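Friendly challenge for the regulars: who can give me the structure tokens for this chain first? No prize, just bragging rights.
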Amino acid sequence: MEETPLYFKSEDILKKILKEPFKFQKIDDKLIVKKERGNGFRSRPTSFIFPRIIKIKSSTAGLIVGEGYIGSSFIFCNSNEKIIINILNFLSQFDVKAHFSLEVAMKNMEKEFIETSKKKWENIIKEEIKKIRIRNEFNNTTEKGNIHISIYNIIFSKVLKKIVEGIKDKSEEDKEIAKNYLKGILAAEGNINVKRTTTNCLYMVRISAKKVSEREHYKRVLKNIGINIYCKDMPTISKEEGSKLGWKTTKGRAGAVLISRWENFLKILLLDLLELHKDKRQKFARHFIYNKFTKQFLSFGSFINKEFTMIEAKNKFHLKANSIRGVKTLAKQGYISKKLVNKNNRLISYYTLTPRYIKTYDKLKQELSI
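First reply, four minutes later:
Bragging rights claimed.
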């Protein structure tokens, strides 16, 4: 389903943030903002053109919060084509000049990678890239380097900051906004952690955030859609602290919110929270299937439209005591219903897979390509 954008009246926002006397002129769907007195740079008359109604998706706001910088200018950097197109589509409604630069890590790459990356990005953004930053100290982990989008317009930055702050507040209360906002956050700052040396299963999803206040905000948004956090945050480590710890990196490490537990992973999958980043989505699905409880959950599919007892389940799947407790957990979560039947003056529990189980089962089969 296509995400419904949020709408903001630019005139209302501009009246709140502009300190100097400005006048507004409405022409069609545009709003022209002019200084009532004084001139701008090099004595030129100062005016700005904004759309009268600004449209932005909650997921786009999440991308900006995760990867963007909003100060006197707006800067956004990413290596993912789909994410860059998302940001450019948002910016297209504004009469502002976007500047592009390319950053490429070359420590493990051939010289031709620079020109190849430049051409690929120019084909995507339909602009010539005139500035390239070469990072010889880093190994490349991208397909075509990182593209930087910069807009040097303080009024635009102030308007964008006001909009994004409003969406951040709404994401802590509105479930639909929270879901889409988190898609942007996870695409920008999400990391999929896997136990590669043992079970190869998914064991953690991290959301990087340097500041404690940012991490607390993310946790409130996650809780809003039913994802509870059980682990302590990964703390931020400064480069000085990293040096004392004997780390090889000189950049330190940003802190992170740690998402654990199968039921939270299932929500990430069912709500399609990794929709904006194909690589992360594929990695998540590829390793979630190795989770022990995922296998157990799917194995109960053979009981769809059938009644079964716990003894039958235990014998069929050779379940141990811990796994039996897991089945009872499924019953508590509404995936299995239970009824008591009197047989020979003895009450026997019979279980049936609920519509919720069948819907989740079908989604898992589809997403995990089983």
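Confidence is low (pLDDT under 50) at residues 38-43. The chain has three domains: 6-167, 172-288, 292-367. Your move, everyone else.
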